[in-house]
Amino acid sequence: MSFKPKPKDEVRLSPSEKKDTVSLAQPIHLLEPENSARIRPTPQFVENEKVQVQMDSLNKNPQIERIFQMLWDKDPDTYKHCHRVADMSQAIGMALGMNSIERSEIYLCGLLHDVGKLFTPDSVLKKPGPLTQDEFHVMKLHPVDSGKLVATLKDVGYLAAPIRGHHERIDGKGYPDCLVSQSIPLYSRIVLVADTFDAMTNNRVYRKQLDLARTYEELYRCSGTQFDPEVAKKFVEFHEKFTQHGFDYFKIKKVA
After folding, report:
1. Residue 209 contacts by C-beta under 8 Å, 6 or more apart in sequence?
2. Does domain 47-255 have CATH number 1.10.3210.10?
3. 93 φ, ψ to 5°?
């Protein structure tokens, strides 16, 4: 599958905007991170030590470590967001009955979904307010850039397509490829729910976080248009029970 952006995705950047991006033309192993101290968010939805060890192992991939050091140096908020989305994505995988291999893959999709923001100008990525139409057009390039970058990585390059598709909508009004319904990779549909949930439940410069009841309501309201109804339903059901029972949820689930 080709990851070359369509003409509509091509946006000219000013010289000042180009200064705060990295280049896809430069191999990832040649890019120099600043190596400032990173703080990886503690996973919430891990039912046992085996799953925790598996997630830790995925994070220790040398190429992924290098990318995430650069992401931390550029924007710690995006770094933390990616880890939270990865954790929630694998939890949705668990709720959907996925096996350990599938959960590892969906974890990686969540972890890497926004690495394309390394190529987003700081003037757009860190703007303290709503984006203009032109700025939003630039922001919408990040799934394409994420897919391109992941496609170059050994062992995980096959996940480039679902990572590229994490902003596609069930009704075909998403981006970058306007895919519809089941033509959207399942992993993309899962990451979209986790990504949106995390965005709604954390403060942004342009709005305050929503409470859980309102967030659940929005996920249900947009099911069938933005979200896969089954994925949204399973996530809300899981999250409500986990919020109520905490780690005892996993014991209850096992008995059930």
Report:
1. 200, 201, 202, 203
2. yes
3. -60, -40
